[in-house]
Amino acid sequence: MKKSVLSAMVVLLLLGVAAYAAFFVAPTDAKQGVIYRILYLHVASAWTGLTSFFICFIANSLYVLRRQPRWDWLGVSAGETGLVFTTVVLLTGPIWAHPVWGIWWTWDARLTSTFVLWLLYVSYLLLRTLVEEPDRRALLSALFGIFAFIDVPLVFGSIRWWRTQHPQPIIMGGPGSFFDPTMYRVLFFTWLAMLGLMTLLLRQRYRLEAMRGDLEIIQRELEAA
Amino acid sequence: MKNLNSVFAAYMIGWTVFFVYYISIARRTSVLREDIERLKNSLNRGK
Amino acid sequence: MALLSNATVLLGKELRTEFRSRELLTTTTVFVLIVIVLFSFSFDPTSEESRRFGAGLLWLAFLFAASLMLQSCFLREQNSDTLSALRLSVSDPFAIFLAKVTANTLFLLLTELLLLPVFAVMYNVPVLPSLHWLVLVCFLGSLGVSIAGTALSAISAQARMRELLLPLLLLPLLTPILVASTEVTAALFDRSPYVQWKGVGFLAVFDLAFLTILWLLGEYLVEE
To answer: Among A65, B15, C123, C126, which is least packed, fewest CB within 10 Å?
Structure first.
């Protein structure tokens, strides 16, 4: 118990430092002024979400090959955590877009792709609720998870290509518009802090899932008795 | 500047989402822990 | 090769089952027709607007129809309890998928080719000048839909709420097909039609990628 409290505090500290850096260390953008600072949270969340989904993919593959429950536990934890980070991306995007463009949503390539990504993993979690038998649930969701992750680069690629055919306001300037090295450093540090948060959430969620596994074993023992 | 409010809002919303998720895991964990205790007891009583 | 001969035999079975009653083909075709008609109420299908929106609507209609049509793919086997017999009859479970994917692609393609002239007439879009390219994009798109749809049908057949689950799983997954097919088709509907080779290439890549994954995971999808 003590170790988890300590690590939680470390993560909180890192996040606090990252926020401070985002507000005070990073220079003000010449074109956009203060509003661009949302990017540190927005972009770092996006990268962390994708990292989490990648972990989900690895866990899914390992489950299909080895059939050990812990890979299923890791898979659902990483999927849920990734979804949380992606939700933050989708919420912070419009908050940035509104002062800059006067509109809440735009079908720009990155936001659209992120939305599809979000839908894919919502489906992943929904599928799990619709299969009762634990082993079957683990296998089916792992298989879908693999298909979903393979689809991710195809989704991003196709939407990006399609959107550049029909030029839209490029809402998220992205790393291309970052010229100052300090900005890169702050972004990278924020990402590291986010990865710490991701690890924390992953571990908690994994423990929950492992306990659920224990519960099912006890329930089966009771039924047998 | 009014834009600073938007930046604050974004960070608040982000952290709230993470916080809510963390709390939801903690709550589900404690509920599950109680269920396990309860079932362990009935298993022991059965024995 | 055993795989191909098994797949051919199974394909024969799939085709015979469908052409005996033709219920899948007729209902799917009618459904796409209904969607096309309904779409016409949501905007004015003049020639100019049809050229801009027509391709997208057409492919949306195909996707919706496919996500309904593909439900029966593995549901049929489950309801008549033939899946275990199928599994025992082949040495490589991929043969089952190869047969079903081929059959589904064929059914989808047939539906699309039946409806293309109807769409062309109702929406004032020229189809004849680039017909062979349209067939190509319909084939590549339908193939991608079939591959993903057949795999996901095997998954959703084993879950609850499978009627709603398959479209839910399939439609986000097929976004790249929708995007690429629409782009290529729109280029072919243009005043001076041209072939978007980038889009055609992308569709081929999608098909290949998902076929490979299906080949790797097929045996687990029909596991006992």
So the answer is: A65
**Does A224 or C93 have the greater pLDDT score?**
C93
Q: Cα separation of A70 and B19, whole Å?
A: 25
Residue A167 has pLDDT above 60, yes or no: no
CA closest to C224 among chain A residues: A136
Find all residues with CB under 8 Å of A127, minimum gap 6, and list them.
A140, A141, A144, C155, C159, C165, C169
The residues in A 77-136 lying below 8 A from B, measured between CB atoms, are 81, 84, 87-88, 91-92, 95-96, 98-99
Using a CB-CB cut-off of 8 Å, the residues of chain A touching B14 are: 41, 45, 88, 91-92
Q: Do chains B and C touch (3 or more CB pairs under 8 A)?
A: no
**Which of A64, A120, A130 is nearest residue C173 as measured by Cβ atoms?**
A120
What's the whole-model pTM score? Answer: 0.91
pLDDT digits (tens, 9 = 90+) for C122-145: 888 888 888 899 999 999 999 999
User: Average per-residue pLDDT in chain C?
Assistant: 89
Q: Do B7 and A215 touch (CB under 8 A)?
A: no
Which sign, positive or negative, has the C-alpha torsion C6, C9, C10, C11? positive
DSSP A175: G
Interface ipTM = 0.92
Q: Which among B25, B41, B45 is the top mutation candidate for probing chain A, defined by the most A β-carbons within 10 Å of its own β-carbon?
A: B25
